[in-house]
Amino acid sequence: MNPELIIVTPEHRPHIALIQINRPKELNALNLQVMGEIRDALKELDANENVRVIVLTGNERAFAAGADIKQMAGKDAVDMLLIDQFSTWDQIRKTKKPIIAAVSGFALGGGCELCMTCDMIVASETAQFGQPEIKIGVMPGAGGTQRLPRAIGKAKAMELVLTGKFMSATDAYNAGLVNRVVPPDSYLEEALRLAAEIAQQSPIAVQLAKESVLKAFEMPLQEALSFERKNFYMLFATQDQKEGMAAFVEKRKPEFKGR
Q1: Domain-located, residue 236
Q2: Burial of 162 by CB count in 10 Å (0-12 exposed, 13-18 middle, 19+ buried)?
């Protein structure tokens, strides 16, 4: 990987990779190149057997303050259709390994949508979430009108989308958008701590469990239950299942190999 606008550390911690958006002067605004680099990094890390969990972050001032408006301002509908920028977001969602967003400062517009595309969010007390696209005459286009209501409910999501208001880290936590809120000097460390806890589990079980949870938002209940059951049965073909249950019976810590 030779990215220019992100910093990728495949072995930041044992079995944990770190991706940092690195456009500080632009408050980590998400242009096509940034998103392409994030997509490519996630594909490579997803294929890396040493990586079990991925942490995505920005800096203390901004996770990502939105899309790069300068890149879109002169476009028309046909231009946007041909650019097909959202295919990149679709690929991010296909990442099998869990992704934790470590958010400080602004997570607005595309930045808010990007952290919602992740599986968990650890927020600094300074974090602010929002979909302010309405203030520039457009609306969210990378999942904001779909993932936000699923996370915080219709009424609150509707208010944020239609007014462009920001939501504080505390309000986001109370609404169920983020997993935890911590002081600004520890948000990344807390995300890495959560990642380490997940990385200790069976990688195959983690991936199939993540897949099953996501299906809860995509399938009717009975279909989703059937999907869950198949993934559950599939795990009994793994060495990790044998190791995990043997370790439980023998009262020792399991050593999962991802096999």
Answers
A1: yes
A2: exposed
Give buried/exposed letters for 106-121 (b at 16+ CB in 10 A, else e): bbbbbbbbbbbbbbbb
Q: List strand residue ranges (DSSP E) for 174-232, in order.
A: 180-182
Report the CATH number that the domain containing residue 105 is assigned in CATH.
Answer: 3.90.226.10
Nearest to 1 by CA among 59, 50, 55, 42: 42
- Tokens matching residue 106: 């602004």
Do the domain assignments include residue 105?
Answer: yes
Compute the distance between CA of residue 58 and CA of residue 191 in angstroms, rounded to an integer.
12
3 state DSSP class of 71: helix
Active-site positions?
A: 67, 110, 113, 133
Question: Looking at the whole model, is its pTM more than 0.90?
Answer: yes
> Residue 134's domain spans which residues?
6-199
Domain match, 111 and 218 both: no
Residue 207 and residue 184 share a domain: no
* Half-sphere exposure for 142 (CA within 13 Å, toward CB): 30
| Of residues 230 and 82, more confidently modeled | 230
Per-residue pLDDT, 82:
67
Q: Where are the beta strands (DSSP E) in 151-194?
A: 166-168, 180-182
